[in-house]
């Protein structure tokens, strides 16, 4: 199955990396020869230099053989024209990265065939959505929702005095009984491991827990955290991401205060956001943050267009007592740096966009995927067909590849966080946590 | 929590006399009936806050606010300047309606942000600037708060 990706920026790179690791044939098209050199020296993919919206260039990329076309340059119009120009195998899925909200208006949405696009991905909106999910679980550093939000995969750091510190998972599980909660992976000393019953949890471990909504509080308690209600959020910046997040918070009846440096932009936002408090000011100013009560906020989110400003204002907010801090970083290298310097969680529009794209392109048996920022693992949601060789077999006897764990089974309206005696059945949705190397092999177990 | 609980008729003035940003801030502070020294301290703090960025949130409304030891509990004032005054608001339009909020630095009940948030929301209701412009008596302002269920 071959894939043509237009745009070798961070989104294109990230998507190309994931798809080629899964054994797909990937060709990346970009105008910038230096970017292509970088891609070629790091990934096992083909590259074509040229304008990805041009039919002739796409032909050189062997578009006729492609079943998937992904246009993710930073220019919406190039992505849309690329989709129109791309003629691949019948049924080829076309994905375009589109940021301009005008393309999402009713007129455009009612006639997507005008642009011959199957899926439009808006990085800024995806980022706001990811941020909202993080905020709703105030101590998690990363989060993904499955089964219509009934199930959450959250990443939590285990504290020194947490009830699970220095205990084996078997011991903890025995205590939990049938409580729908399971540790899918542990990140320790920069390594991700898929644990078994004998694994001992240590303080400082980053654990990835899958839990139903009702059991999330128990997961927080076990890792040494407390749940707090989200009522007030301060957002630094007047970016598009800030707008989307404020809008989402408004819908969830959470009060948002936005600190916007640029007066004209502040006015524009004040007109669009009917509930939020928009103030003009510099979000790196300690005094301003303090007088606006950052220490009493449930969360502070830094969403300006500048990574440095975001990191700086997040540090200031953290110091002033903000309970949770989420920082937007554009440069992917800064994502892990953010946590090392004590910030709670980092989000990146490129990573959010890449995740959204991966979710969409793995349609077929795959319905939802989440990749995590600092781990070598991802969570994939599969629809189980009658041909699935591991269906009808107790999980403890089923032949799953190393580095995978069935984290949850969704059966109709029921969500099961399985133990060894449970089994998946045709018609179920199975949520599997897998190390990157195991994604290809485990996907083969779930034919569509 | 209702906004109405925090306002009283003696801390409402529908015909403010000041003609500049500074004069209006001083006049709003005076409605709190503090001593002279406290008035001065509070004015300076509010001025300092305004220098970090105007609290004029647009549509002719400003919400000057700060925390200060000069009050022992959260206090609010509402004032109107029918002619309007330049307050460097985000939309650059003159400000007519002023909501002053002052809270002590350590508040047991932690009402500062909720009150600030509620006033901001009240101010953003569709017809509020017009209805504030029609107020004739301080009691009308209190009735408006009640009617809007804020």
Write the layout of secondary structure elements.
The complex is a heterodimer of chains A (448) and B (150).
Chain A: E1 2-6, H1 10-21, E2 25-30, H2 33-42, E3 46-49, H3 55-60, E4 66-71, H4 76-85, E5 93-97, H5 106-110, E6 119-121, H6 123-136, E7 142-146, E8 151-157, H7 169-176, E9 181-188, E10 191-193, E11 206-212, H8 216-222, E12 232-236, H9 240-251, E13 255-260, H10 263-272, E14 277-280, H11 286-291, E15 299-302, H12 307-319, E16 325-328, H13 332-340, E17 345-347, H14 349-361, E18 366-371, E19 377-383, E20 404-411, E21 414-416, E22 429-435, H15 436-444
Parallel strand pairs in A: 1-2, 1-4, 2-3, 4-5, 5-6, 12-13, 12-15, 13-14, 15-16, 16-17
Antiparallel strand pairs in A: 7-8, 8-11, 9-10, 9-11, 18-19, 19-22, 20-21, 20-22
Helix pairs in contact in A: 1-14, 6-9, 6-14
Chain B: E1 12-13, H1 21-30, H2 36-52, E2 56-58, E3 61-62, E4 65-67, E5 75-85, E6 95-103, H3 112-123, H4 128-133, H5 138-147
Parallel strand pairs in B: 1-5, 3-6, 4-6
Antiparallel strand pairs in B: 2-3, 5-6
Plain-language structure description:
The complex is a heterodimer of chains A (448) and B (150). Chain A is of the alpha/beta class and 448 residues long. Chain A has helices at residues 10-21, 33-42, 55-60, 76-85, 106-110, 123-136, 169-176, 216-222, 240-251, 263-272, 286-291, 307-319, 332-340, 349-361, 436-444, and strands at residues 2-6, 25-30, 46-49, 66-71, 93-97, 119-121, 142-146, 151-157, 181-188, 191-193, 206-212, 232-236, 255-260, 277-280, 299-302, 325-328, 345-347, 366-371, 377-383, 404-411, 414-416, 429-435. Chain A has four domains: 2-121, Rossmann fold; 127-131 and 229-352, Rossmann fold, CATH 3.40.50.720; 146-222, Regulator of K+ conductance, C-terminal domain (Alpha-Beta Plaits), CATH 3.30.70; 358-444, 2-Layer Sandwich (Alpha-Beta Plaits), CATH 3.30.70.1450. Helix content of chain A is 32%, strand content 26%. In chain A, a hairpin with a 2-residue loop joins strand 20 and strand 21 (414-416). In chain A, 52% of the residues are buried. The mean pLDDT of chain A is 86. Chain B has one domain: 3-Layer(aba) Sandwich (Mannitol-specific EII, Chain A). Chain B has helices spanning 21-30, 36-52, 112-123, 128-133, 138-147; strands at residues 12-13, 56-58, 61-62, 65-67, 75-85, 95-103. Classes of the chains: A alpha/beta (448), B alpha/beta (150). Chain A binds chain B through residues 232, 255, 257, 259, 263, 266-267, 270-271, 274-282, 285, 287-288, 291, 293, 296-297, and chain B through 48-49, 52-55, 57-58, 63, 65-67, 90-92, 110, 112-114, 116-117, 120-121, 124.
């Amino acid at each position: 199955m071959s894939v043509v990706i237009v745009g070798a920026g961070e989104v294109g790179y990230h998507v190309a990396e994931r798809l080629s690791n899964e054994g797909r044939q990937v060709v990346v098209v970009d105008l910038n020869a230096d970017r292509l050199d970088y891609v070629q020296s790091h990934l096992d993919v083909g590259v074509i230099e040229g304008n990805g919206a041009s039919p002739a260039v796409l032909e050189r990329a062997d578009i006729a053989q492609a079943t998937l076309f992904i246009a993710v340059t930073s220019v919406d119009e190039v992505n849309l024209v690329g989709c129109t120009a791309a003629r691949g195998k019948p049924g080829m899925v076309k994905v375009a990265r589109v940021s301009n909200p005008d393309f999402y208006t009713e007129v455009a949405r009612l006639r997507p065939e005008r642009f011959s696009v199957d899926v439009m991905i808006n990085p800024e909106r995806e980022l706001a959505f990811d941020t909202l999910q993080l905020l709703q679980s105030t101590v998690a550093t990363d989060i993904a929702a499955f089964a219509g939000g009934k199930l959450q995969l959250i990443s939590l750091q285990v504290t020194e005095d947490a009830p699970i510190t220095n205990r084996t998972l078997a011991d903890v599980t025995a205590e939990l009984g049938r409580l729908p909660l399971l540790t899918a992976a542990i990140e320790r000393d920069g390594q991700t491991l898929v644990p078994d019953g004998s694994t001992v949890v240590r303080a400082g471990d980053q654990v990835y827990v899958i839990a139903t909504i009702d059991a999330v509080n128990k997961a927080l308690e076990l890792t040494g955290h407390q749940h707090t209600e989200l009522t007030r959020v301060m957002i630094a910046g007047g970016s598009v991401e800030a707008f989307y997040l404020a809008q989402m918070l408004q819908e969830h009846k959470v009060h948002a205060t936005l600190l916007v440096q640029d007066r004209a932009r502040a006015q524009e936002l004040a007109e669009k956001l009917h509930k939020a408090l928009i103030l003009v000011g510099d979000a790196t100013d300690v005094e301003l943050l303090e007088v606006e009560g950052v220490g009493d906020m449930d969360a502070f989110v830094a969403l300006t267009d500048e990574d440095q400003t975001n990191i700086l204002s997040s540090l200031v907010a953290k110091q002033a007592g903000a309970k949770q801090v989420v920082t937007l970083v554009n440069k992917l290298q800064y994502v892990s740096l953010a946590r090392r310097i004590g910030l709670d969680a980092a989000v990146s529009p490129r990573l959010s966009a890449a995740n959204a794209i991966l979710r969409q392109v793995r349609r077929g048996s795959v319905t939802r995927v989440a990749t995590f920022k600092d781990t070598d693992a991802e969570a994939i949601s599969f629809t189980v067909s009658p041909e699935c060789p591991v269906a009808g077999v107790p999980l403890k006897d089923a032949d799953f590849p190393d580095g995978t764990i069935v984290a949850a089974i969704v059966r109709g309206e029921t969500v099961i966080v399985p133990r060894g005696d449970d089994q998946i059945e045709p018609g179920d949705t199975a949520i599997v946590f897998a190390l990157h190397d195991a994604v290809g092999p485990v996907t083969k177990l779930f034919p569509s | 929590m209702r906004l109405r609980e925090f306002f009283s008729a003696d801390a409402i003035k529908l015909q403010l006399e000041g003609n500049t940003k500074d004069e209006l801030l001083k006049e709003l502070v005076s409605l709190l009936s503090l001593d002279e020294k406290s008035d001065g301290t509070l004015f300076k703090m509010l001025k300092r806050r305004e220098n970090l960025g105007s609290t004029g949130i647009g549509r002719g409304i400003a919400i000057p606010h700060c925390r200060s030891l000069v009050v022992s509990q959260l206090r609010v004032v509402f004032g109107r300047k029918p002619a309007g005054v330049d307050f460097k608001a985000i939309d650059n339009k003159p400000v007519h309606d002023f909501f002053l909020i002052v809270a002590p630095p350590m508040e047991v009940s932690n009402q500062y942000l909720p009150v600030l948030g509620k006033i901001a929301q009240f101010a953003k209701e569709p017809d509020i600037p017009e209805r504030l412009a029609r107020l004739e008596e301080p009691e009308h302002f209190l009735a408006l708060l009640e009617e809007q269920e804020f």
